[in-house]
Amino acid sequence: MTKAVLDQKVLKNHMGGEWAEASEVTDVINPATGETIVQVPLSSKEEVNQAVRAAKKAQKEWGLVPAPMRAEVLFEVGRIMKERKEHLAALLTMENGKVLEEARGEVQEGIDMAYYMAGEGRRLFGQTTNAELKDKFAMSVRAPIGVVGLITPWNFPIAIATWKSFPAIVSGNAVIWKPATETPIMAHELMKIFIEAGLPKGVVNIVFGRGSTVGDAMVQHKDIRVISFTGSGETGSHIAAECGRQLKKVSLEMGGKNAVIVMDDADLDLAAEGIVWSAFGTSGQRCTACSRVIVHQNVLKELEKRVLEKMKALKIGNGLKEDIKVGPIINQAGMDKIKKYIQIGKNEGAKLIAGGQELTGDQYTDGLFFEPTVFTDATIDMRIVQEEIFGPVVSFIPVASFEEAIEVNNSVEYGLSSSIFTQDVNQVFKAQRDLDTGIVYVNAGTTGAEIHLPFGGTKGTGNGHRDSGVQALDVYTEWKAVYVDYSGKLQRAQIDVD
Ligand code: UN1
């Protein structure tokens, strides 16, 4: 078994370039073993205020550093992350539970983001264009916004942090970052890397703590001009309401109810593989996880058989062991929610054909493990088909046509990711047009977004912004239109135009 080595027992906040102890702390639990691995601060509003003061001061200078030079720091961050990939992955598995292979993938996502956003330091393109008057020049440039607030989740504690912080940094902002209290180690490690890479003091500040105190104080603070949040729909809409009141920019990413569509001409083995990977990887605790399979009725039975067959190979346990494929559930609240939905599914009349139980005894005694679970004969009115469960639970919904499949896909309140397995090129292009989600996959599962494309979704998944991709820069910059008149006289737009 791989060993994860942590050099601290109590984590600290980081403000204005200094590590700062907090008066109150709480335990961070390894979900695979139940052991306390470290303690994390539960900070107060005053600590947020202090961090914002430091950030404001640092941003004044950082915003004036040429972007290619700001980017040099990110190149170095990427280099160190790459060097430390194994170490980071092991710690990530320890605090989050996801299996090592996936933890390595997540760290890689952060490395990719570092190099990609570092490259942006030499782009950050605006536009030059023509002015309508003689001897006049017009262009648009991206300007930093100032101090930005990032609230990141436990399910991708390092990747999502990089999606938000790297574009914010390269754009010349200073950051106040509240990582999830379940997974603070990745934040702590990334902060150490920022320091080693030469990021000036105060450009990134970490304030650990609860959403109801630290998160709220960030949303309320008038000097934090942007909030970027990934988490639950309930919290997201609360944040958006408050930001709306203050005319504060807000970027939200809030979950999904993602479907794989399997048509009757699909390669069923490939589809089964895609379903198993995207439904049960990360124990289903991804915003992009497949939680619905919309399957043509002609191939329902065969697909069920092949999925169940492939599920037999999934070893469940502590993700630090290389042969484990499905790790634990993050905490008791997550486990209770999954169990609640299993009962709801049964009551609603869906047929349980695999799993459905918490694993207990032997190696499972101290951790939180749930069997990969499949319901079938589900219908669109069922709550298990409409609501996000955030666990290894998938429901098969039989349909009679391509059109019905699209309709069922679009019938939920979320719109993050979708996928279709088919060999028919016409169906492929119709599907990418008609699936109402921010991400569409063809002949692959619903997970696996790459960082240079926009990540986010429609409807209840977000509010029109995107994490990652060049589009992320829109969250952390203001557009500024600049007109330079070199005619030496007053030229009035729209009037002196001949
Ligand atoms: C998330 O679940 O919030 O596309 C992020 C994927 C990963 C990121 C998921 N690259 O599944």
- Radius of gyration, in Å, reads 24 Å
**Tally of individual helices:** 15
Sheet-strand content, in percent, reads: 15-25%
Form type? globular
Number-wise, the strands total 23
Largest sheet: 7 strands, mixed
Q: Secondary-structure map with pairings?
A:
Elements: E1 13-15, E2 18-20, E3 25-29, E4 36-41, H1 45-62, H2 67-83, H3 85-96, H4 100-120, E5 127-130, E6 136-144, E7 147-151, H5 159-170, E8 174-178, H6 185-196, E9 204-206, H7 211-220, E10 224-230, H8 233-246, E11 249-253, E12 258-262, H9 268-280, E13 290-296, H10 300-311, H11 332-348, E14 351-354, E15 358-359, E16 369-370, E17 373-376, H12 383-386, E18 393-399, H13 402-409, E19 414-415, E20 417-421, H14 425-434, E21 439-442, E22 458-459, H15 472-476, E23 477-485
Parallel strand pairs: 7-8, 7-10, 8-9, 10-11, 12-13, 12-20, 13-18, 17-18, 20-21
Antiparallel strand pairs: 1-2, 3-4, 5-6, 6-23, 14-17, 15-16, 19-22
This protein binds 2-aminohexanedioic acid.
